[in-house]
Amino acid sequence: MQPEPPPYDPNIPANPSDALATSQPQFLNNFQKLYEAFEVNHIPLDALSGAGNHTIVQLLEQENPQQTQFSEISVYTKDVSDQTDQVFLRYQGDGTEFQLTNYQIYSVDATTFFTFLPGKIIVYFGSFITLPSNVLKLFPPVAKKIMGMTFCPSGSTPTNKPRINLLQPSSGFFTGMEVFATPGFGRASPPCYYTILANF
Amino acid sequence: MSFNPSIPLITDPILQSAAQIKANFQAVNSAFGDNHYGLTQDEDEFQGMHNLLTLRPTKSGDPATSATQTALYNKVVGSIPQLFYRPNSIQTPIQMTYPSIKSDLSNTQYSFVAGPFIIYGGFIAAVTNGQVITLSPGTMLLYVDMIVSSQPSLPLKVAQVVPTSISGTSFTATYQTTTGTYDVFYFAIGL
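YS: structure for the whole thing
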């Protein structure tokens, strides 16, 4: 088995009087180590064009918010409880830090969808024709606070804009809401498209 | 000492070059250690990867992209640096961030999507018919909707509410009935 080459050494040549015969393998090792490290995530130093550009950006998990000076933006990853590492962004001058991405760990069906906005906001959206017991369930049930919503009737009674009644939170999370018809249209909710914003 | 790409000269004695070469190796090590896993750190498998991306503003505008390139960069908009994405083949740059965000479990919050469009959401208690609601931060609203919400412990209230007189970041809560106050949720998009 070949021995591992020594790591990059920023302190060579150790002595100004070192003979080139001593320094030359050290130089070669440093150049090789630099080349190998640089070609990870970057176009290699010996590429015919584009050397220095990134190919991908692999972000190693950080423990704390990263500093930013004036005019700088910082992008990095941190571990998020109950998720994997996620991308965070921090505004200039050590400004606000917020979570930019989320890990989608839940399934969806043909009419029920969700996605995320920066800042740990989940967006539930979809449509329904009828609701069992007038209850629109929120899935996944991770909503700590309902932030806003919109319902658009999609059936034959466009003036029948529904009203809602939030269900009591369960273990601190909102699980859904009752959706009722406008007076004059009975109690059953009209078919609707909907969007609901919530913090999670 | 900063990196010197012009050493050694062919006529330099090795005694002189040694210190210059060492300084260059140190400068490379220091510069590469910025944003990247360090060259002298223990885990070979991480070398070349990034700890973070500190993006400074581009000096020559939006970067050009070839047919197989995309670019992620910092461009200053109104003195505030913003994250931009440019698709391949120098297509239109897209601003990915807005200068601020408010997602703090309060009753009035906002976030953003690429554009950037501002996504407002909020809850307002006891809104009267004709009450003007002004959202912050100020933008031009492109979409607004409202819905009446009942408190779970109270009888279901009966009303429809629609936003009217939408102007700038303000709109008026207009009820189907002109009496009573209602709790409402709103959802809006601004640019």
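YS: worth flagging: Chain A has a mean pLDDT of 90.
IM: good catch. Also Chain A touches chain B through 72 residues (CB under 8 Å).
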